[in-house]
From TrEMBL, chain A:
Top-level taxon of the source organism: Eukaryota
One Pfam family here: Skp1
Family as reported in the entry's similarity comment: Belongs to the SKP1 family.
Protein name: Skp1-related protein
Alphabetized UniProt keyword annotations: Ubl conjugation pathway
GO biological process terms on file: ubiquitin-dependent protein catabolic process
Domain SKP1 component dimerisation, residue spans: 118-165
Domain SKP1 component POZ: 2-70
Automatic annotation (TrEMBL), chain B:
InterPro entries: F-box_dom
Family annotation (SMART domains): FBOX
Name the record gives this protein: F-box domain-containing protein
Species per Swiss-Prot/TrEMBL record: Pristionchus mayeri
Domain F-box: 8-48
UniProt superkingdom: Eukaryota
Lineage start: Eukaryota, Metazoa, Ecdysozoa, Nematoda, Chromadorea
Length: 167, 280
């Protein structure tokens, strides 16, 4: 059975019921609209409006879900050798996300959050964290084009208060 | 959706920061005020790391969180810093090392610092009475795995009884004795008890009997008693069939065993005579 999803720019996506169920938000909406896997009429006569997701982002979300539709549920957060909390991003997922510029990653992350697709959300969070990891503040600011609203005096004060932290 | 790190809603930026270790958080804080706030609002998860606290001088606290050592002369500054590096801090173990001097003000700051910190194991060396707030913090964490060393502190029966899991309790130079009733509670909970301060050899024998009946095979217990105690013990058990001198022991300690599988030995290296019970 298929489910119809409608994006904010009125694009309709017809997806497999299993893929639709990967989103907690969509699952809840289907339940509220009495749409069930065994009732084709309910699926054909209804569509799920997703006003917070655009066509372009929805296509990416569906691509990710297609790849992961048969995944076993897993413990999401693991720890690396130094005890740092990490989420293991699979090779396929790294490849999937590697060409997305930061702006698109943010859009995808916002959609994953809205749709409540935890695996995708954690993949993106970890990918962005990896971009930050090991960099100095000015390198982070440059990489993400951050407009710093702190005055030099405020920065100095923050540095002074953390000067006694030794790695 | 704002396509900038600092423009991300807090619910998203905090989920990115949760994957960052402390050193990266410190760098991120200086980028802009929005990220400084996001760092403070995100949880710091260090599931294999320890938080180690040392209270070496009056009014001084030295803290290590994972691999980062934090020193500050001002206790209030430390607590302010704590609030800015993460909302909830989860680590594997909290280690509160022996403090040289009793300073309830430092204890209170410690309780304040640890608010919102969650650990699986708590290893605490109490040297002197803990402050009311710090004691409360320990009680609030009675569901954790406890390792506690008590030195120059009074017997806080309520605290010792509050632990929900078997604990390791070390009694160092205590100025009190523990009742058989309390001992029984600790024993039944499965605690490892070292240097248990008891009043007499008679009480020790009573406990040895209970131990024989109830303790786990790997549950170790030792008693701290006065120097005459071992001789008293020997007089007490002389001629009793259930106790015998164990000549087969390879160490130099004089050891007596009983038929219930309890082993009592003299530990001459200790200042006091330590009577140690363990199954063999």
């Amino acid at each position: 059975p298929n489910v119809k999803l409608v994006t904010s720019d009125n694009e309709e996506f017809v997806v497999d019921f299993r893929i639709a169920k990967m989103s907690v938000t969509v699952s809840r909406l289907m339940e509220a609209m009495n749409m069930s896997e065994t009732d084709d009429a309910s699926l054909l006569s209804n569509s799920i409006p997703l006003p917070n997701v655009t066509k372009a982002v929805m296509a990416r979300v569906i691509e990710w879900c297609e790849k992961h539709k048969n995944d076993e549920p897993k413990e999401e957060k693991e720890n690396d050798k130094r005890g740092r909390t990490t989420h293991v991003v699979s090779d396929w997922d790294k490849e999937f996300l590697k060409n997305d510029e930061f702006g698109r990653l943010c859009q995808l992350m916002g959609a994953a959050n809205y749709l409540e697709i935890k695996g995708l959300f954690n993949d993106i969070s970890q990918t962005i964290a990896n971009m930050i990891h090991g960099k100095k503040s000015d390198e982070i600011a440059e990489m993400f084009n951050i407009h710093c609203d702190l005055t030099e005096a405020e920065k100095k004060e923050i540095r002074k208060k953390t000067a006694w932290c030794e790695d | 959706m704002a396509a900038s790190l600092e423009g991300l809603p807090l619910e998203l930026s905090t989920q990115i920061i949760v994957y960052l270790p402390l050193i990266d958080r410190l760098a991120l804080r200086i980028c802009c005020s929005a990220l400084e706030k996001a760092v403070a609002a995100s949880d710091l998860l260090l599931p294999r790391d320890e938080i180690t606290i040392k209270r070496s001088h009056p009014g001084d606290l030295s803290i290590q969180i994972g691999r980062i050592r934090v020193h500050a002369d001002s206790l209030s500054e430390l607590c302010r810093f704590r609030r800015r590096i993460g909302n909830k801090i989860s680590a594997h173990e909290l280690i509160v090392a022996r403090n040289e001097t009793v300073d309830s003000r430092v204890d209170d700051f410690l309780a304040d610092f640890l608010e919102g910190c969650e650990v699986n194991v708590m290893s605490i060396h109490l040297h002197g009475e803990p402050s009311r707030n710090f004691r409360e913090y320990i009680m609030q964490n009675s569901n954790k795995q406890m390792w506690m060393k008590l030195e120059r502190t009074s017997l806080d029966e309520e605290l010792l009884r509050s632990f929900l899991h078997d604990a390791d309790i070390v009694f160092m130079s205590p100025a009190f004795t523990i009742s058989t009733d309390l001992f029984l509670v600790l024993l039944k909970r499965g605690d490892f008890i070292y240097g248990a301060p008891i009043s007499s050899v008679r009480q020790m024998l009573e406990i040895a009997k209970i131990y024989s009946d109830t303790a786990r095979d790997d549950q170790h217990i030792s008693f701290g008693v006065g120097s005459r105690a071992f001789n008293e013990f020997k007089i007490e058990v002389a001629g009793k069939e259930e106790w015998s001198w164990d000549e087969s022991r390879s160490d130099n300690n004089e050891t007596w065993t009983n038929e219930c599988g309890v082993d009592v030995s003299e530990q001459p290296e200790s200042e006091k005579i330590t009577l140690k019970l363990h199954r063999f």
